[in-house]
Design a protein that fits this description.
homodimer; mainly alpha; 12 helices; 0% strand; elongated; DNA-binding
Chain lengths: 216, 216
DNA sequence: CCTACCGATCGGTAGG
DNA sequence: CCTACCGATCGGTAGG
């Protein structure tokens, strides 16, 4: 979400953001982009200050430390905030159609910037995942909701425990995304969009008990 | 590979490592562990020197810069060096058995330390993947070899382009591994080893044209 | 390979 | 929210 979008949201909720809130927003936005580009330790407070349009000292009126900025960025900008609503918004009657459309939507979002998952990797590598538990409380209801979506669609699933089904559904995207960013550009171009289609096709044959209806 | 293993290998190849080569090895080994623990920018040359058992200045007799150490570590310690031989060593007659045993072997290796893929993530986040192309030349023959393995086993595959098949095979492991390390410990314990079994089962149903024979 | 040092930059703070 | 500063640490080097 952009700073202006958050602003608009705050306004819609009846809250006029104070000047201080706007500055904090600018700091988070600036830090977010710098962290994606350079990682956490590779980004300095001075760079954040400059991009946010204030001086180094000014930052400390809004955040107690560099790590506090990281926590704010990690919570507010986690790709999950963009991906889960996109999945929930999919309108499809059958499980295969749901998964196909969800896959297209997710990959489209991931394709907009190839560093969307970097926040996750930074947290893993530079913080050894120590802030991740904080996120789970927020995340859990959505994960359960995605499990429910499967139950509401037509099409018979093979006997797969619900939690593992949801996990494998998430895994489908990791599988595609990670192998995509690791590919040399020429090879990636060669595979084209067929790869996603085939990945989804393999997954559908993997989870459905009924024959999988052809796409397109 | 440990420093002593590399030493033994060099000796077996008839090369007696010089004192300087041993020091360079110790530097790579020390940097490797520190990078996994703290990332690249989070690790200082002084920490590397201390753990390698020499002083800061001494490092520069072996490496021109900190980044040169990164390149040496990235090339020598990439998890691919451990994973590909393990996959090639699998002895199975059918494709399903091959994939099941490969999955068990890979996950066993990944399980030994949960930071095995951190090298990859650091390269992605802190260097924006700029050294990755150097690795492809080394990697390509092995990738093709894995494609050939499928051709030599019994069992009919669905019509899946060979490159995408290999990519999806790699993706299976990313899918399992990433969703594993992101899981809260309690949930991970709950899913247990079933999850891997189910992931492999889904994948096999996804790629095989014949009915998939039951495991165990 | 060590000692001793360089200038630059780091995260953070005092005081206004 | 800025100016001016703190001590600590950074990657790297000269000279031996």
């Amino acid at each position: 979400m952009t700073a202006s979008a958050e602003h608009a949201e705050a306004a819609a909720a009846g809250k006029v953001p104070s000047k201080g809130e706007l500055a904090a927003e600018r700091i988070v936005e600036a830090a977010y982009r710098l962290f994606l580009e350079q990682g956490y330790h590779g980004t300095s407070m001075r760079q954040i200050a400059e991009r946010a349009g204030l001086t180094l000292g000014g930052i400390y009126n809004h955040f107690a430390s560099k790590e506090a900025i990281w926590v704010a960025v990690f919570m507010a900008k986690h790709p999950y905030h963009e991906l889960v609503p996109a999945i929930k918004a999919v309108d499809a009657a059958s499980i295969p159609d749901f998964i196909r459309q969800a896959a297209i939507g997710v990959v489209e979002i991931l394709g907009r910037h190839d560093d969307l998952l970097n926040l996750m990797f930074i947290e893993l590598v530079e913080f050894r995942g120590k802030h991740t538990p904080e996120l789970y409380a927020t995340l859990l209801p959505d994960v359960l909701a995605i499990g429910e979506i499967f139950a509401g669609k037509s099409g018979r699933l093979r006997a797969i425990p619900r939690p593992i089904l949801v996990r494998s559904f998430a895994g489908l995207f990791f599988s595609y995304y990670i192998t995509d960013i690791l590919l040399p550009p020429e090879v990636r171009a060669m595979m084209g969009r067929d790869a996603l289609h085939t990945f989804v096709d393999i997954y559908l044959h993997g989870i459905m008990a009924d024959p999988v209806p052809a796409d397109d």
